[in-house]
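Exercise 7. Predict the joint structure of the components listed below.
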Amino acid sequence: MASLGRGALVLALVVAAYALVVGLLGAVRRDRRMVTSARRATFALVGVVGVADLVYAAAILRHDFSFVVVAETSSRSLPIGYLITSFWASQAGSLLLWVSVLTGCAAIVQLTNRRANGELMPWVTAILAAIATFFCTLLVVAASPFATQVAPADGNGLNPSLQNPYMVAHPPSLYLGYVTLAVPFAFCMAALLAGRSDARWIVSTRRWTLTSWSFLGVGMLLGAHWAYVEVGWGGFWAWDPVENAALMPWLVATAFLHSVMVQEKKGMLKVWNVVLVATAFALSIFGTFLTRSGLLSSIHAFVASNVGFWFVGFIAVVLAGPAALIIWRLPLLRTEHRMESLVSREATFLFNNLLLVGLAFAVLWGVIYPLISKTVIGDEVTVNAPFFQFFSVAFGLPLLALMGIGPVIAWRRASLRSLRATFGIPFATGVACGLALTVLGYGTNALGTAAYSLCVFVAVAIGSEFARGAAARRALSGGSWAGALVALINRNRRRYGGYVVHLAMVLMIIGMVGTSAYGTTREASLRPGETLVIRDYRLLFTGLVRESGPNYDERSARFTVSRAGQALGEIAPANRFYPITGQVDPQRSNEAAIRTDWSRGEDLFLILDSARSDGSVTVKALINPLVNLLWLGAIVFVLGSLIAAWPDRREARRLARRYAEEPVVGEA
Amino acid sequence: MNSSPIVERPSGHIRLVFALAIAGLLGVFAVYTALIGDTTPLVGVAEAAAGKHRGEVVRLAGKVVSHSGDAGTPAGLRIVLADNATGQTTVLVYHGSVPDAFRDGRRVVVDGTEKASGFEAKTDTLVTKCPSKYQPPTSTGTVTGS
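Solution:
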């Protein structure tokens, strides 16, 4: 079995390299037979990598612990759902997932562009094959999932923290986000290589970019929810390098999604868009590298990592290649229009881009600062959470304001009169919100008050756009408000899907600010019969209970909760202990108890820090106000992304007409 | 190559604003981290023992050799930590939350101050490697494949 898997990976490497070389030759020589052969190799690659996937999946499902990676990440007692998770729990497994998703995407690109982008596709085929060649090389040379050993009786099992339903979806979602960024990157590079300076590559990959951006966003939100319910410190984001690894490409992809509108509409920011798409892809590779290499836990881990130098080399190529292409094609990338005013939609998008990219680089700076300090001053110095928090607020608040301004301000130049008409009510409502919060006693946190005022400003500005549009549709064709709203969204899904995403961001920011600015934490050691008071909640500790689960032993602390004399039921934070074959100490997992109060929009969060043989416990309790708006915002985010990415025949016809009429720019 | 349809070049001041904004941002990052930023040196057990950062708050990295006690009690959790490279050990007492992945053999990081009397760990600062990078100890047996 392992030989079959290893053989499949070697064959995949050969096929990917063949697609790369023949695709390049076909593109340079304009040889149709070579281009077709490279295209077929792309489809063959799906089959060959699929064989490797099947062998690896079969080894996991059959508990074949002669596979080293299977023994390290699964066990006989692991429930079936988490056996699936163990596929990508190891470095080798996650790299195999990368290649599988990439080859699948490459095949979809071939299928959907059979009769489109004839000039670009040979280059696209070669570039995607180059990326596949790199990852296949890693799997064959540095991190094979098919290394074997004398099979132990049982495996080590999956890390208990990963035994959570969110962890079934979180890593694949992030990987889908990382990998699908390869498609816009490939099209962008293909456009430069083919000498096309128009926005066709952007239009052709808009859905891929949206898909990638959405999966990265959803992946981060799933991870945040997993951290909240499973890791058990009461928060959802810790500025860990691995979390930052997904945030950076997402921020740059967000900038790209906005700046492409300026290129499509005004023919501006062409170089900037190439820089953004290359940076987003390079950061997605960097993200994969960070997640798998352990680079930043220790400088020594970097040296010891068997994939580290491969990734560094590949990232260097991903950055140097586009830089060289930009310099070569600079005459083609000149802007077609002048920016007429700094008070216009294109300027707003430019500011938004600067802030997003600035924030991404602030995060990158914080992530790689230990390496920089080690190189420059000889000491490894880490950057703490306040650094990230400072920049997320400093850049986040203006970005929040631009979320309300950008969608509604006029293109080219906005007059004072139009600004007053468009932003008068949202601005006044935002100010009124700030005043109301101050009067109600929430003004002590100035940043929280400012954030909430801006949230109201954005919500009213975007809500007004929906209301204006729906009113216009009703005036044209009558019907109900709901029908007019649906027709409005249906008529321009990209625009209104984007507005829905902005509203989702507002909800999420309200949730994030609520917990960070207005949360409460209490910690106490308690004996049975003692009470912990947090705000108006009283938590009476009634005792410890021991139980057994399918593959763990559990120790839970029982609390009866009351508020203002009213009983609210029982909650029980717990510790679970998962036995590991051959080891005395079991693996511990903290199971936080969360009581959600939808009427007050807050969570009571209880963590069992430790339990002692005399029956006493140490617990940490938190009140997280409005945190559930973060999860509600996540659902709205998915809805908005779906609306924006949903195929739109009307738009497709319009674009087909536009590009049929537009002359090819640049050399053929 | 066909001639490209350049209608107008962007005005110089917009480019200047753009370039200055980027340069300014990079400057702010550098100044913030160098002068104001909340940064902590990351040191190994051997480096801490050498006393280079004595009296400073540092982030101590090492591998857990053994542990005993309870981080929730006044006596605390006693951790014997080994240097990742040299194997030199130190003993520290920790109070507060203990990550799920904490156990013997695991690499951990903890904030604190290196004093003449030993390393004084700060409450609630013990972290282990992210679960997504979790690699359990290799199963017993001989690796035969590649």
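Discussion. The longest strand of chain B covers residues 57-70.
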